[in-house]
Amino acid sequence: MKKILAMVLALVMALALVACGGGNKSDFKVGFITLHDENSTYDLNFINAAKAACEKLGVDYVIKTNIGEDQSCYETACDMADAGCKVVFADSFGHEPYMIEAAKKYPDVQFCHSTGTRAHTEGLANYHNAFASIYEGRYLAGVAAGMKLQQLVAEGKPAKIGYVGAFTYAEVVSGYTSFFLGVRSIVPEVTMDVTFTGSWYNEAAEKEAANKLIQGGCSLISQHADSFGAPTACETAGVPDVSYNGSTKDVAPNTYIISSRINWEPYYEYVIKAVQKGEKMDPDWTGTIATGSVELTELNTDVAAPGTQEAIDKAMAELKAGTLHVFDTSKFTVEGKALDSYKADVDSDEAYEHETEVVSDGYFHESEFRSAPYFDLTIDGITLLDTAF
Amino acid sequence: MNKKEPLLYISKRESITWQKSWMIRGIAILLALVFCGIITMLLTGLNPIEVFSTIFYGAFGTMRKSWVTAQKLAILLGISLAITPAFKMRFWNIGAEGQVLIGCLACAACMITLGGKVPSALLVLISLAASLAAGALWGFLPAIFKAHWETNETLFTLMMNYIAMQLAAYFIIVWEVPKGSGNIGIINQNSQAGWLPVLGGQQYLLTILLIAVLTGFMYVYLTYSKHGYEISVVGESHRTASYAGIKVGRVIVRTMVLSGAICGLVGFLLVSGNDHTLTTTLVDGRGFTAVMVSWLAKFNPIGMIFTSLLLVVLERGATEISSVFSLNHSFADILTGIILFFIIGSDFFTNYQVHFRKAKKEVE
């Protein structure tokens, strides 16, 4: 028995050496945890940014895909810390509590979580959240969609669009509302139907949802769910689609117009550089158009209406100049009334109270009090077909 | 007439020693590894030795990895032990997935609704009782229908999985925080109310010990107890059992309640001891993998330790491969598939003997 044990131990040590010896480019190592793999547009967007940032800065990295929002996230994060990673990133909302547990366990390692909400109240020096003002990107994508819709309406199609959402979560609500406001800046009479799949990644459900919207008379579709389901359904039905997280031109060359995405590269670079220099980091970082975090992917000129690029450029310039605000309270109503005041749930406490006043100076201040979106109102013109999720 | 003997023919083995049967399996695993090596080289150009050492590293490379492997082993073994009495009785319970999940749901329900209202130790006991009861109910329903109306247990248990899954999905929406996120998060993260106590600083130790005790219990129960004997007789033939004075219906119901309750226990261990959350994917297909574990070990609880170890190591290693070599997770699944194919295939050689014409001696 002892002999066997000794042999096993020897083998473990030999293999451990082999496994550690492989290709260390740099002594600075970064870990990335993603919920799905590159088949999900959402995770692919993170994976690409991770690779680009690490290669640019010449640091070693390890990416673990398909990590669930459960104990395996904690174990993977700790595993990365054990393996010498100085920073660990995770990409999905449900990873947050497990990242916090890992941050408590390894105070010398930085844990950065995208889309999370708790870093600014948790009081952990080594736990951070990040997001971007993607509602601005959504708005600009909405402008491109509006240009197309204007063309379609002129051809006699209804001024109605559809949106496939994942959950009735603030991030999704903020996304479809800003997209809708972008469209409405071009086509004032537009209405929008929204349906939810109850999953961030479910190709069949997203396809089905898109088909349901198309059958319901929607002339154009956009989505906030992470598979190629909705773009594929649009391509089959020949309905224009505004995508998210990255270009879907490959699967939908005849219907893809444009897509907005968060470019995580600037954030990753910011964190890695700060850790290398030993500088303090923002517990809650918001990327903007200015930081290069909010991007539009290539415009498909074969599908987009003429003049789209010009319209986008104009709106972009106004957003940058601060003369245009996406959630301008003069541009939308809630239950027929203008929004003068709204308390949003910014600080995560046990009761999830709505405690922070976010309307002032004539607009709703999205992503200013914390990075993750908190716009969770249903504005007039948008119809939620189902709210089960 | 000179009738020619065929080139090779097959005959059923009368019996086989355990050494021989494990030797055949060993050869199968070895062949599988060689085959995997060839496939790896052809498809990726990687050094197969490096791939295999990475599998090993993924499962046992660090203390943490070894503990996680042991925990996963315990959970898979626990579910396998749960379904074994039913399978031995030839009651095809493929509802372990749902029986575990409903146990998870019951445990999470107690932790969420009673967290902070009762002392943590009491809450653990209440959750345990609720999980056992929920699992037992999920086993009882198909059994009572089978015993009284001869319903098909395979379909029944399978459908019960979906009911459990939908219930879990429903309650996740009820309990989600914040609204619309589809996430429960860690239950009682700050108070740790209802969390299984941590022994000796190792979170998973208690789970592992409990499953170890359960393994011993199940071995004794199946091999030496009257119940175990009744289960084997019912498995052989319902008529023989009736003739021998065994109440078949009662044995079916009793065994399935036990089966379900143990699944419920595993669900409790998952939520209270491991994940501290509820998701619809918490069981992660292990209710079905357990069928393979149990079957490969020929329903022997001790053998199941090895078969579940094999599957867990493969799974853990596969995940490691996909990240170390930047391969898609599917490649790891291909390797696991090949290895399982060889192992299951080797069953043929433990049940049958292959004879060649020329050779006087028997060849395997």
Break the fold down into its secondary structure elements and pairings.
The complex is a heterodimer of chains A (389) and B (364).
Chain A (H helix, E strand, L loop, with lengths): L1 H20 L7 E5 L7 H17 L2 E5 L6 H12 L2 E6 L5 H10 L4 E5 L4 H4 L4 E6 L1 H21 L5 E6 L4 H15 L6 E6 L6 H13 L4 E5 L4 H9 L3 E4 L11 E7 L2 H13 L6 E4 L6 E3 L11 H14 L21 E2 L11 E2 L1 E2 L2 E2 L17 E3 L5
Helix pairs in contact in A: 2-10, 3-4, 6-7, 6-11, 8-9
Chain B lengths: L7 E5 L5 H27 L3 H13 L2 H26 L7 H19 L5 H30 L3 H23 L29 H20 L1 H11 L1 H6 L4 H28 L10 H11 L4 H24 L4 H23 E5 L8
Antiparallel strand pairs in B: 1-2
Helix pairs in contact in B: 1-2, 1-13, 2-3, 2-12, 3-7, 3-8, 3-10, 3-11, 3-12, 4-5, 4-6, 4-10, 4-11, 5-6, 5-10, 7-8, 8-10, 11-12, 12-13
Strand order of the largest sheet of chain A: 12-10-9-8-6-7-17
Mean pLDDT of chain B: 91
Count the DSSP helices of chain B. Answer: 13
Range of strand content of chain A: 15-25%
Q: How would you classify the quaternary structure?
A: heterodimer
Instruction: Report the order of strands and helices of chain A.
Output: HEHEHEHEHEHEHEHEHEEHEEHEEEEE
Radius of gyration of chain A: 22 Å
Shape of chain A: globular
Query: Largest sheet of chain B at a glance?
Result: 2 strands, antiparallel
Describe this structure in words.
The complex is a heterodimer of chains A (389) and B (364). With 389 residues, chain A is of the alpha/beta class. Chain A has two domains: 21-132 and 263-287, Response regulator (Rossmann fold); 134-262 and 294-315 and 371-384, 3-Layer(aba) Sandwich (Rossmann fold), CATH 3.40.50.2300. Chain A is built from eleven helices and 17 strands. A seven-stranded mixed sheet of chain A has the order 12-10-9-8-6-7-17, with helices on both faces. Chain A has a six-stranded parallel sheet with strand order 2-1-3-4-5-11, sandwiched between helices. Chain A has a two-stranded antiparallel ribbon with strand order 13-14. The model of chain A is unreliable at 14-24 (pLDDT under 50). With 364 residues, chain B is mainly alpha-helical. Chain B has a domain at 74-298. Chain B is built from 13 helices and two strands, in the order E-H-H-H-H-H-H-H-H-H-H-H-H-H-E. Chain B has helices at residues 18-44, 48-60, 63-88, 96-114, 120-149, 153-175, 205-224, 226-236, 238-243, 248-275, 286-296, 301-324, 329-351; strands at 8-12, 352-356. In chain B, strands 1-2 form a two-stranded antiparallel sheet. The longest helix of chain B has 30 residues, at 120-149. Chain B is globular. The model of chain B has no long low-confidence stretch (mean pLDDT 91).
